[in-house]
Structure formats: C-alpha cells, structure tokens
Specification:
The complex is a heterodimer of chains A (279) and B (286).
Chain A lengths: L4 H8 L3 H30 L19 H4 L7 H32 L5 H12 L3 H14 L7 H25 L3 H9 L4 H30 L2 H6 L6 H11 L3 H31 L1
Helix pairs in contact in A: 4-7, 4-9, 4-11, 5-7, 7-9, 8-9
Chain B lengths: L1 H37 L1 E4 L4 E4 L4 H9 L1 H32 L4 H9 L6 H11 L5 H8 L13 H25 L3 H9 L4 H12 L1 H17 L2 H6 L7 H10 L4 H26 L2 H4 L1
Antiparallel strand pairs in B: 1-2
Helix pairs in contact in B: 1-13, 2-13, 3-7, 3-10, 7-10, 8-9, 10-13, 12-13
The chains are: A mainly alpha (279), B mainly alpha (286).
Chain lengths: 279, 286
C-alpha cells in the first residue's frame, strides 16, 4: 500500500452513504454513455431496416439489401466524394496556414499580437449562420464568383483556420525552448532547427489539427448550405433526402463513416497508450 | 548582425501573412458586405437592391421576428444549462475515476461527432417519432395524452440541441477537472472539510475555466442553430436561424436576412463580453 492511498482508506470507514454515492456516480455515467450512443445505435440498426414505404422511421425487418446496393441512390456517392475532396484540401490548407500563425503567436513578440488573437477568436465565437451569411453576401456582390466548388472550399478553409491555430498553439505553449536553443548552440541555423527539432515535436499537434479540420469540414452543413450554389455535399444530400424520406443508404453511409472514424481514433488511442507504457 | 535583427523582426509577420490575409478577405471583408447589404432596400422579386441607409431593416427585423430571437436565446440558454448539468458529473467521473481508460471513455463522448450532424438528428427524429417506443411508453404511463407527441414540441428541439452540443460542454469540463492537483482536495479533507465541502470549495472553483469554455462553446452555436428546429420541431419552434436561412435562400430578401444576422451576432457578442468581464478575458482567448 503506497503513501497516497493511505489517507483515502483511513477515511473510508463503513461509509454506506459514500459507497452508494460512489456507485451512483458510476451508474449515472454509464447511463450517460447509453444516452450518447443511443442515436448511433439507431443509425446503424436502421441501415439494416427494410422499410415498407418511403420513410425509414419504424422497424420493419432485417435486410442486407441496402448495404449490397449502397450505390443505387443517384447522387449519393457523388456527394460523398465531393465532401471528402473538399475536406482533404481544406484541412491541408487550413492546417498549414494555422500552424504558421500559431508559430508566430507563441514564438515572437510583435506589434498587433492582441488583435491577431482577436481575429483568430472571433470566427470561433460567431454562429455558423452568420459566417455563412456574410460569405454569401460577399459572393453575391462580387459577381465574377460563381457559387460552387471554390466557394465551398474557401468557406471551409476560413472556418477551419482558427481551429488549427488553437490546436497547434496548445502544443507549442507547453514546449521546452531549451531544446531548440541547444540545437542552435550546436551550430544549427534557424531553418535546420525548425526542421530537425521543432517540427518533429509539434507533428502530433499538426496531425491532430488536420484530423479536426477534416472532421469539421466533412460534417459542415450550415455554411456549406448557404454557399454551395448547385453543388451537393454529403450533409446537403442528407438534408434534401430528409424532406422526402431519407433512403436507408444514407444510414449505410453514416455507419460507414462512423466505423472508419472510430477505427482511426481507436488506433491513435492505442498507439498513444503503447508509447506511454514504453516511455 | 543588424541584418539578422531586421530579418527576425519581419519573421512573425511573414508567418502570419498568408493566414491573416485569408481571414481578412473571407471573414472580415464579408462582414463588411453583410453590413452594407443590411442597409439596402429595393425589390425582392427582381433582386434589385441599392444602398439607402435603410436602418428600418433592423427595426422591422426586431419587430417582426422578436419571438424568434427570444426563442433562440431561450432554447440555447436552457440547452446550455442542461448540457452543463448532465455532463459535469460525467466529466468528473472520467477525470477522477477513469484511470487508464480515460482516453477510451473520452472517445465515447465524442463518438456522436463521428456520425454526421444531420444523420444523428434524424436518428432522434426516429427515436421520438409518434410510433416510437418513447412516445408509446410515455402515453401508457399518462405522461403524454393519448394523442400526445414529442416531435414538433419545444421539448424535442431543446433535447436535440442539448444532445448535439453536449460534447462541446463535456470536453472542456473534463480538461479542467483532469488538471486539478488531487493533493489539494486531500489537503482540504485533511483540514476536516467534508467531501461535499471540499468539492464546493476546491474542485468546483478550479474547474470554472472549463465551465466557462464549455458554456460558450455550447451557447454560441446553439443560438444560431436551425437544424434541430427544422427536423424535430414545427414552424412554431422555428428559431432565428430558420428565418435567416429561408430569407436568404428561399425568399431572396437579402437585406432583411443580413440585418437579422447582424442583430444575432451583436446580441451574442454583447453576452460574451458581459460573460468575459465577469470571469476574466484570459480564460477566453488563452
């Protein structure tokens, strides 16, 4: 028995109320997880449903046919491809721009730091509908721009930058500058130091920013809806389909995205844990 | 040496330039266009608008859609409070009892994000539908009348908003609870504070940054939301986001929509600044 555990056990006595409270909290937390995961269960379950009418709302019976015919809804796969394409480009661009801003903010004292911080913070504290609406008025008034792929891409980069800055900044702040100074003392110039020391250290944060931006972009509805013109991303397709009854293939796609995302996250959690165990 | 010094002075601006120019061009400038558009007037059908300092757009928006504005902030406020109450014990449990499973448990909290926003809201539509098990049970135990519904009620919309933004509340709460030095709590208990008192005087105050961050991250997007009202409510539950959206895309009444967007943003900024004053700005911008 170690020293930290000692005072805790001493205080335990035969504390019935404490025992109940301890397990009450656990029971509550488990219930909360059920609540959080319930809609996900419904999405997965109803991808196997065999609805009799247009509306996939009540359970009618098990079928695999919508998984087998996942590509039989016109426009669905195209919408998904567009979403992935935009998310890929937007997350790369936004993370690059955001990482540079984060480096400047943490590493350098300069005039205008406060206003830069404000400019990063403001898009995060503006509701999406206002972000989308203001971009739309820009594109409506600058008449040489057609609403479509490029306007969606610009919108996504715009709202992702702040998330990338915040993510990378968090890592840079808690980071030992002495390692870089040591590299410089050993004769490395600024660029070599950045490449060989700084970049490997902030790489996990850059990866996290990329994943975060990708996830936000793929999932975005509001800003995209206002600036998409006649293009259809996956969330826009779901919105359109919901009005007339979404086909079960939408659930198939939703389930597939969920499985891919969870696998990726689980992989990174396990990888981190293994690294921690080894360290 | 002098050259190096000058070079160093420029470096931060070179790093900032691409990102900040992008934000200026596609965040700040558009807000200017939005302001300009909000003061235009003209013909809605032919889309011929001209700038006339039409301040009446603001007055009309507030007069005609006062109910929508009030409802938006009411729903967002209730949902934020519910999310805080629901997720605080959960975040506490993970931070203090999670042990080596913390990361996995956090994954459960953000799991809803891995299902597209619209799809998970549609899933709630299925769960709360009239023939669903929830409504039938509530009818059987007479909480709802024989024809009582959950869909198309304020309850459903607020519940949807709460669910969709709950992870934004739970994550910052967890981060601030996880950072608390356990020896401080033990010290309080060694000084004869009861468990409950130690929580109130030590744990809770130390977790306030998380409460602040979580409240803002939940409240701001919730106030502008229109998806939950659209899918889980009826026109009686429509929020200001629904109005802005339809004025832009269906009615092409751009000046009115722009004015409403500005009013929404102004109210939110005022609320955020009041809140920031009350708790200290450092916690907001980091």
């Amino acid at each position: 028995m170690n020293a930290v555990a000692q005072p805790l056990t001493a205080r335990k006595r035969v504390d019935v109320v404490g025992f109940l409270r301890y397990h009450l909290l656990t029971a509550y937390s488990l219930l909360m997880f059920v609540y959080l995961l319930l809609p996900i269960g419904v999405v997965i379950l109803f991808s196997f449903n065999n609805p009799s009418g247009r509306f996939n709302y009540t359970w009618q019976g098990f079928t695999l046919k919508y998984w087998q015919n996942w590509n039989s809804v016109p426009g669905l796969w195209g919408a998904m491809k567009l979403s992935l394409e935009i998310a890929l480009i937007a997350s790369l661009v936004a993370t690059a721009l955001g990482t540079l801003i984060a480096l400047a903010l943490v590493r350098y004292g300069f005039r205008g730091r406060g206003s830069t911080n404000l400019l990063i913070f403001l898009p995060l504290s503006t509701p999406e509908i206002v972000l989308g609406a203001s971009l739309l008025t820009l594109f409506l008034n600058v008449t040489f721009v057609q609403l479509g792929f490029w306007t969606i891409l610009i919108a996504h980069v715009m709202f992702c930058i702040s998330f990338a800055v915040v993510t990378v900044k968090a890592r840079l702040v808690g980071f030992d500058r002495h390692i870089e100074e040591a590299a410089m003392d050993l004769g490395a110039n600024e660029w070599t130091t950045f490449q060989k020391v700084t970049l490997p250290l902030i790489a996990p944060a850059i990866l996290a920013a990329l994943l975060l931006c990708f996830a936000i972009s793929v999932d975005d509805f509001v800003v995209t809806y206002l600036n998409a013109g006649s293009e259809t991303t996956f969330p826009l397709f779901v919105w359109g389909a919901a009005r007339v009854g979404a086909p079960p293939q939408v659930n198939v796609f939703g389930t597939a995205i969920f499985v891919v995302a969870v696998t990726a996250m689980l992989g990174s959690v396990l990888y981190q844990r293994r690294r921690e165990v080894r360290a | 040496m002098g050259l190096l010094h000058r070079h160093r002075g420029l470096t931060p601006y070179l790093l900032l330039a691409p990102g900040l120019i992008f934000l200026l061009a596609f965040f700040v400038v558009p807000l200017g266009f939005l302001a300009y558009q909000s003061l235009e007037s003209g013909n809605q059908a032919t889309l011929t608008y001209s700038f006339t300092w039409a301040w009446s757009n603001y007055g009309n928006a507030l007069r005609d859609y006062k109910g929508h504005f009030i409802r938006s902030f009411e729903y967002a406020g209730i949902a934020t409070a519910l999310a805080l109450i629901l997720s605080y014990p959960l975040a506490y449990w993970i931070a203090f009892r999670g042990g080596r499973w913390k990361n996995l448990l956090l994954l459960f909290i953000i799991a809803p994000f891995f299902v597209t926003y619209l799809i998970r809201t549609l899933a709630w539509e299925t769960i709360l539908s009239d023939n669903g098990i929830v409504v039938r049970t509530l009818r059987d135990i007479h909480v709802l009348g024989a024809n009582g519904r959950l869909l198309a009620t304020s309850t459903a919309v607020v519940a949807g908003i709460t669910y969709n933004y709950l992870p934004f509340m739970a994550l910052p709460l967890y981060v601030s609870l996880e950072q608390i030095d356990h020896s401080l709590i033990e010290a309080a208990q060694d000084l004869y504070a009861s468990k409950w008192k130690a929580f109130l005087r030590v744990t809770l105050p130390l977790s306030l940054p998380g409460v602040v961050a979580g409240t803002l991250l939940t409240f701001i997007p919730a106030a502008g939301d229109f998806i939950n009202a659209q899918l889980l409510g009826s026109t009686k539950q429509h929020m200001i986001g629904n109005v802005i959206q339809s004025k832009f895309l269906e009615l092409t009444d751009y000046p009115a929509a722009a004015a409403m967007s500005f009013i929404l943003m102004a109210i939110i900024l005022v609320l955020v600044f009041i809140y920031a004053r009350a708790v200290g700005t450092e916690k907001l911008t980091g």
